[in-house]
């Protein structure tokens, strides 16, 4: 394995990646269900205590073999890249919705997502930090121009127009303009009635990546 600016070259073959994803993708989806069930369960405390013992057994099973740090962003020479731990799109991260981003073309993207009880801030509404998290990510991927370059969030501005209801939502992002190593991206998240949060960000191609 070797590293480039934190990106790790890891020669796992594509068919082995498929096998891992086929097992861990559904596992992460089940853990997402577990998170939602834990928030919304009304079973008596004795039942919750039994569930705790079962969850602890699962954690022990998974801890039997662990990587030393976070999952990182990895790629192989077969042209595959994977970021299983990413907080927004990570296939193996139950905290990630996960957002499935459609890149219409370089610099233009959208996504649909359904946010449940785990993303609540004000009653019935999405936490403002959660909308910022999702917007930051789709904007970052959009700035990266179809993954042809590395960009980091420099400045991010959010305008919260009205509360974002939990449930089905849509995100849109596009590159507005560029100047040198700076890329301005505009984006929004909203429901069927239109945008609830509008964002503008300056994404920087870092000096080390040029
Ligand atoms: C797998 C690929 C897809 C992944 C998508 C991921 C989406 C998620 C996006 C993120 O959340 S990234 C994580 C959050 N961001 C960071 O952690 C960034 C931390 N900051 C840095 O790493 C550096 O400060 C940064 C790369 C942003 C800039 O460092 P540089 O040394 O390359 O910048 P430099 O000082 O040379 O400035 C270059 C230009 O950018 C401008 N600039 C620098 N920092 C800025 C800033 N923070 N905001 C606005 N503009 C900024 C700076 O004024 C200058 O403008 P001019 O060319 O006009 O002079």
Task: Explain this structure.
This protein is α+β, with helices and mostly antiparallel strands and 210 residues long. The protein has helices at 14-40, 45-63, 128-143, and strands spanning 2-4, 7-9, 73-75, 81-82, 100-105, 108-115, 152-160, 167-179, 182-191, 194-204. The protein has two domains: 1-96, no CATH class; 99-209, Thiol Ester Dehydrase, Chain A. It has a six-stranded antiparallel β-sheet with strand order 5-6-8-9-10-7, covered by helices on one side. A four-stranded mixed β-sheet has the order 1-2-3-4, with no helix packed on it. Strand 1 and strand 2 form a beta hairpin. The longest helix is centred in the N-terminal third of the chain and has 27 residues, at 14-40. The two termini are 23 Å apart. The model has no long low-confidence stretch (mean pLDDT 96). Bound molecules: decanoyl-CoA. Decanoyl-CoA (MFK) binds next to helix 3, strand 7 and strand 10.
Task: Please outline what is shown here.
This is Acyl-coenzyme A thioesterase THEM4. With 210 residues, the protein is α+β, with helices and mostly antiparallel strands.
> SSE order, as H and E?
EEHHEEEEHEEEE
CATH topology of the largest domain: Thiol Ester Dehydrase, Chain A
What are the low-pLDDT stretches, counting only 5+ consecutive residues below 50? Answer: none
Number of helical stretches of at least 4 residues: 3
Instruction: Using the alpha-carbon principal axes, give the shape.
Output: flat
Category by helix and strand content: alpha+beta
Number of strands: 10
Ions, cofactors and other bound molecules: decanoyl-CoA
**Widest sheet, order of strands:** 5-6-8-9-10-7
Give the CATH superfamily of the largest domain: Hotdog Thioesterase
Largest sheet: 6 strands, antiparallel
Helix content: 25-40%
Spatial extent as radius of gyration: 19 Å
The proportion of residues in beta strands is 25-35%
Q: In CATH, what is the class of the largest domain?
A: Alpha Beta
- Please indicate the count of domains: 2
